[in-house]
Amino acid sequence: MKMKIYNTLEKQVSPTAVALGYFDGVHIGHQKVLKKTAKFKKEGLIPTVFTFSSNPKSEIMKIPEKKIFSMDEKQNAMQNLGIEIMYVTDFSKIKNMSAEQFVREVLFKTLNAKVVICGFNYHFGAGGLADATDLKRICLDYGITTKIVNPVLFNKSPVSSTRIRKALMEGNTFELQNMLRK
Questions:
Q1: Rounded to whole angstroms, how far apart are CA atoms 52 and 14?
Q2: Contact (Cβ atoms closer than 8 angstroms) between residue 157 and residue 163
Q3: What is the DSSP letter of 102?
Q4: Contact, 56 vs 129, CB < 8 A?
Q5: Strand, coil or helix: what is 19?
Q6: Nearest Cα to Cα of residue 122 among 141, 108, 102, 142
Q7: Cβ contacts of residue 76 below 8 Å, gap of 6+?
Q8: Alpha carbon 49 to chain centroid distance?
Q9: In the 8-state DSSP scheme, what is residue 25?
Q10: CA-to-CA distance for 82 and 77, rounded, in angstroms?
Q11: What is the pLDDT of residues 28-44, one digit of tens each?
């Protein structure tokens, strides 16, 4: 089945499990979040991703974005990991929402999320001031379960898009292969 992609916040009727993040590079840490999301299919939830068309950090810091994967590569990787729906949102449309508003309006009312999954370092809400612990606390008020994925380590350090960009710049194919492997 081909993954459905929405560029607007279409209301979901069916209940979803939603992975949250930018997922640039879909590295092994991202893959852990996405695989965990896909497992909720067995519980009748549609595996869904909520992401952005551009990197929020680049927009906030007003710096050019250095993408690891194109949007097509990202979509293919996610579909191969079992994601069925992908919301690709313009960051500017939600960047001023408070953490509470985001959970209520986007996760609860629009995406019909029953479970949300994110990495340990997830930040959201206006100014990125809320973190994964705040997400868990706010989601409780809406009956949404939150799963926080611990860091995936390579050479004793968390895998991140920043590390992958550094390895790309240095031409370190060994690190790249290990951090991007499936």
A1: 22
A2: yes
A3: I
A4: no
A5: strand
A6: 102
A7: none
A8: 6
A9: T
A10: 9
A11: 999 999 999 999 999 99
Give the three-class secondary structure for 173.
helix
Are the beta carbons of 91 and 79 closer than 8 angstroms?
Answer: no
pLDDT at 53: 84
Number of neighbouring beta carbons within 10 Å of residue 153? 11
71-114 pLDDT, tens digit per residue, is: 899 999 999 999 999 999 998 889 999 999 999 999 999 999 99
Quote the tokens at residue 141.
Answer: 């008020």
Give DSSP secondary structure letters for 53-68.
SS-HHHHHHT-----S
Residue type (1 letter), 21: G
Cα radius of gyration rounded to whole Å, the chain: 16
pTM: 0.94
Q: Which pair of structure tokens corresponds to residue 178?
A: 């290990």
What is the DSSP pairing of strand 130-131 with strand 153-154?
Answer: unpaired
Tell me the C-alpha to C-alpha distance, in Å, between residue 96 and each of 29, 43, 117, 118.
27, 33, 22, 20
Residue by residue, DSSP assigns 124-162 as ESGGG-EEHHHHHHHHHTTT-EEEEEPPPEETTEE--HH
And the tokens for 44? 């009748």
Is residue 27 within 8 A of residue 179, CB to CB? The reply is yes
